[in-house]
Structures are given as structure tokens and as C-alpha cells.
């Protein structure tokens, strides 16, 4: 039975590698979907492809008025908003801290952290009007440790964790749950960017061969966890953090051959 009948879900970065997977899956499970994105052409095309119960809205997550317009779009089209997925994200070009300019630092923090903050701030009243709901923030395994040459990204994703915990405390009594997902390396355009100290793509930098599960993650892997956290199956889960990385954080499962 579809888990999201009569519910409306807003996904930011809804045209991206993971975002579009999330949008399609929520829609397939009965939800009305609002595709929040900065890429109007792809957003409109995805909404057209899905047909009924889908609409695109221009949403730059760094802009509070853009958030207000997205909430209005959700409520005026579908009557209420029940789920927010703070998925939009950007990664800095790799560089050591000493060579990271302030504009780069600010841009990454603006999208990944301020964008998530604004999303919680502006949608919370709508979720309250809907008598409760769920917010899922997409952070990263990079938000659980340090990664050389990715200071802005790492710092932004660490901060999303504190924001999640705080929002869970503030919104729990209003039946709004707030959780975080930490994906490892997921096969999307995101990982085609050059990796630290090299021209190789991040996918090569984090070659999955030594992982306990030796493959890259697929967007659908994250989507399945996301749908669980957004659903009533997770009604007692808030302020929690879920790692989905095929064992990357465990360290190498395979030792280098010796002798
Ligand atoms: N792919 C990975 O390996 C990986 C790993 C860990 C975490 N993540 C996180 O997963 C999320 C989704 O990334 P993805 O892998 O689908 O990458 P992606 O590049 O395919 O998608 C990112 C999306 O964010 C959108 N975006 C960027 N700036 C925006 C803004 N100001 N307003 C609204 N949208 C904006 C982009 O247009 C794009 O659609 C991101 O938060 C990313 O940090 C990705």
C-alpha cells in the first residue's frame, strides 16, 4: 500500500542525481511532489513526465523569499505540506584551508547550511498547519570526520547535524520529526568533480574496491532510507543520523597484498 497517499513532499535540488530519484519514488508511493530546483527546464520536464500530483517550483535554497514561494506553491496546489527533504547541496573545488578563498567558503555554507536552516524555518509553520510531518536533511559521511581539501563542505555538513538535533528538539511537540542521512559516495554528477589533490573524479578518489560492500552507492539506496524516515514507519525516530555508505567509514575491508 502506498505510504504517502494524500501527503505532499517538497524535495530541494529535485532535479539532481539523488533529488530526482527521491521525487520519483515519493510520487510512485502516492505523494504529491513539489520539485524545488534552480534548473527550470529540467524541473518542468520532470513534473511533465510525472503528470498529475507533480509540480515544479523555482527554489534557490539560499533565498528566503524563494522558500516562501515554494511553500505557497505546495499549499495552494495540494492543500498542505507534510514532508521536506533538504537535499540541495554543492561541493567546494578541492583546496587546502590556506588556499580556500572566503567567497568559496561562503558559497558552500550558504547552500548547504543556510539553505537547510531556511528550509526548516520557512516550512515549519506549514508542517504545523498540516498537523505534523517530517524533515530529512541530507548531510554526508564527510560531516562525521575530516577530509583534507574539503573544509567548507565538511564544515557545512557537520553543522547540518547540530541544526537537525536542535530542530528535532524545537519541533517534536508539534509532531514534526527531523532526521539526517549521511550518504557515502553515491553515483551522481556530484562525484564527477575532481578529487582532492588530483584531477581524478571523486569516484576514483574513493574507489569502492576496499569497502565492505565494494560498489558505489546508487541514488535509489539513499531514496529507500529517506522514504522510511519520512514515513509513519519512523514515527518514533527524531534527531537521528543514518549513515548509508557501504561500509566506507569502517575503513578498508581488504588488506593490500604483501610479499
Ligand atoms: N553524490 C555523493 O557522493 C554525495 C555524498 C554525500 C552527500 N551528498 C549530498 O547529497 C545531496 C544531493 O547531491 P547529488 O549527489 O544528487 O548531487 P547533484 O549535483 O546531482 O545534485 C545537487 C542538486 O543541488 C542543486 N542546487 C545547488 N545549489 C542550489 C541552490 N542554491 N538552490 C537549490 N538547489 C541547488 C543542484 O542544482 C542539483 O540539482 C547533496 O546535499 C550532497 O551534498 C552527495
UniProtKB/TrEMBL annotation:
Q: Which branch of life, at top level?
A: Bacteria
Q: What is its EC number?
A: 1.1.1.47
Q: What class of enzyme is it?
A: oxidoreductase
Molecular function per GO: glucose 1-dehydrogenase [NAD(P)+] activity
Listed A to Z, the keywords are: Oxidoreductase
The record ties this protein, via PROSITE patterns, to:
ADH_SHORT
What InterPro entries does the record tag this protein with? Answer: NAD(P)-bd_dom_sf, Sc_DH/Rdtase_CS, SDR_fam
Stretches for region Disordered: 1-21
Q: Which family does it belong to?
A: Belongs to the short-chain dehydrogenases/reductases (SDR) family.
- Protein name per its UniProtKB record: Glucose 1-dehydrogenase
Amino acid at each position: 500500500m502506498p505510504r504517502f497517499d494524500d501527503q505532499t513532499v517538497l524535495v530541494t535540488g529535485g532535479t539532481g542525481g539523488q533529488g530526482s530519484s527521491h521525487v520519483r519514488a515519493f510520487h510512485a508511493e502516492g505523494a504529491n511532489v513539489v520539485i524545488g530546483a534552480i534548473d527550470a527546464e529540467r524541473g518542468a520536464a520532470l513534473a511533465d513526465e510525472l503528470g498529475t500530483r507533480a509540480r515544479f517550483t523555482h527554489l534557490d535554497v539560499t533565498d528566503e523569499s524563494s522558500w516562501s514561494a515554494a511553500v505557497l506553491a505546495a499549499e495552494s496546489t495540494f492543500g498542505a505540506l507534510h514532508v521536506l527533504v533538504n537535499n540541495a547541496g554543492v561541493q567546494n573545488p578541492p583546496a587546502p584551508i590556506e588556499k580556500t578563498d572566503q567567497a568559496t567558503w561562503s558559497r558552500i555554507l550558504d547552500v548547504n547550511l543556510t539553505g537547510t536552516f531556511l528550509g526548516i524555518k520557512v516550512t515549519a509553520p506549514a508542517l504545523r498547519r498540516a498537523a505534523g510531518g517530517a524533515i530529512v536533511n541530507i548531510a554526508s559521511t564527510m560531516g562525521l570526520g575530516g577530509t583534507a581539501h574539503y573544509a567548507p563542505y565538511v564544515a557545512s555538513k557537520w553543522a547540518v547535524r547540530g541544526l537537525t538535533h536542535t530542530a528535532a528538539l524545537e519541533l517534536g511537540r508539534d509532531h514534526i520529526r527531523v532526521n539526517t542521512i549521511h550518504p557515502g559516495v553515491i553515483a551522481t554528477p556530484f562525484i564527477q568533480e575532481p578529487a582532492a589533490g588530483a584531477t581524478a573524479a571523486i569516484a576514483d578518489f574513493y574507489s569502492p574496491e576496499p569497502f565492505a560492500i565494494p560498489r558505489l552507492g546508487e541514488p535509489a539506496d539513499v531514496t529507500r532510507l529517506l522514504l522510511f524516515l519520512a514515513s509513519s514507519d519512523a514515527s518514533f525516530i527524531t534527531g537521528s543520523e543514518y549513515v548509508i555508505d557501504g561500509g566506507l567509514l569502517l575503513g578498508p575491508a581488504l588488506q593490500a597484498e604483501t610479499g
